[in-house]
Amino acid sequence: MKVVFAGTPEFAQVALAALHAAGFRIPLVLTQPDRPAGRGMKLSPSPVKQWAQAHGIEVAQPRSLRLDGRYPEDARATRERLLALQPDVMVVAAYGLILPRWVLALPRLGCLNIHASLLPRWRGAAPIHRAIEAGDADTGVTIMQMDEGLDTGDMLLAERTPIRSDDTTARLHDRLAEIGGRLIVEALELAACGGLKPVKQPDEGVTYAHKIDKSEARIDWTEPAGVIERRLRAFDPFPGGVAHLGDTALKVWSARAEPGQGAPGEVLSVGDEGVRVGCGEGVLCLLELQKPGGRRLKVKEFLAGHMVRPGMVFAPPAD
């Protein structure tokens, strides 16, 4: 089976490696153009591009696939290459570009998407983050036949996994990436023998995982401690939580919700085991902090160089 792969981040790179290891022929990989990254803001290739080049696979980086869009020359060149290849299927995982109708219709078996949720829950850009933030008991991966809607296509395969109480987006991401790689191999093996059975998504239970905005990092201490704790796990590794103590904007990376009572934002106690802060409901024990320009530190290390004492008050979020 001839597979064209379209993806960009580490989640997609895991699936690409799984397809390659399973013996599928992958003559072309599509990925996003190189982006500035790091302190020097040098152009950096995506994880998918790095892996593909290391394994001798041709890479294309169109800025758009819309023939009537801003970069029609990129779209035309990509279409010509795909027409020449005549792929059996395109596998898509966190690619980052919208696939127009001509792309969806070109492969013999269409385009299959690896989506990191149990559809129809958490369609959209940030399904892993939003599942943790919402307190979902479980999530999973769905292999979907792509159509022109936003994650609305027929479901082909799915696998469920629990969301653990200590799962961050980083940890859950890695587990779902492994499931996605295994599941897409299974899907293509079934497709080769006509064994896939498409199932339409139900109309009930649809939710949208909107893209994470940096403004969401600001901690609102009037919220319940459990809500803030889940959001911190959801926002690790990006964008973290932000809490203003005096003139300093601290990053809060991990915390534990505890029973108790105190004024929202007030530091109730300080110790090597954590900094306990009052919330709208319960108490949040801060476990890992970072000052501007510093690194993530366990609270014991952080307190060795920074003054935090009971009675201090974290500022409320700006309007």
Write the layout of secondary structure elements.
Elements: E1 2-7, H1 10-21, E2 25-30, E3 35-37, E4 42-44, H2 47-54, E5 58-60, H3 72-85, E6 89-93, H4 101-105, E7 111-115, E8 123-124, H5 127-133, E9 138-145, E10 155-162, H6 169-192, E11 208-209, H7 225-234, E12 241-245, E13 248-258, E14 267-271, E15 274-278, E16 283-290, E17 297-298, H8 299-305
Parallel strand pairs: 1-2, 1-6, 2-5, 6-7, 8-11
Antiparallel strand pairs: 3-4, 7-9, 9-10, 12-13, 13-16, 14-15, 15-16, 16-17
Helix pairs in contact: 1-2, 1-6, 5-7
Binding site for (6S)-5,6,7,8-tetrahydrofolate: 117-120
Domain Formyl transferase N-terminal: 1-188
EC number: 2.1.2.9
Walk me through the structure.
The protein is of the alpha/beta class and 319 residues long. It folds into two domains: 2-209, Formyl transferase, N-terminal domain (Rossmann fold); 215-305, Formyl transferase, C-terminal domain (Methionyl-tRNA Fmet Formyltransferase, Chain A, domain 2, Roll), CATH 3.10.25. Helix content is 27%, strand content 27%. A seven-stranded mixed beta sheet has the order 5-2-1-6-7-9-10, sandwiched between helices.
Short characterization:
27% of the residues lie in helices and 27% in strands. It has eight helices and 17 strands.
Short key terms for the protein model shown above:
single chain, 319 residues, alpha/beta, Rossmann fold, Methionyl-tRNA Fmet Formyltransferase, Chain A, domain 2, 2 domains, seven-stranded mixed β-sheet, six-stranded antiparallel β-sheet, 8 helices, 27% strand, elongated, Formyl_trans_C_sf, transferase
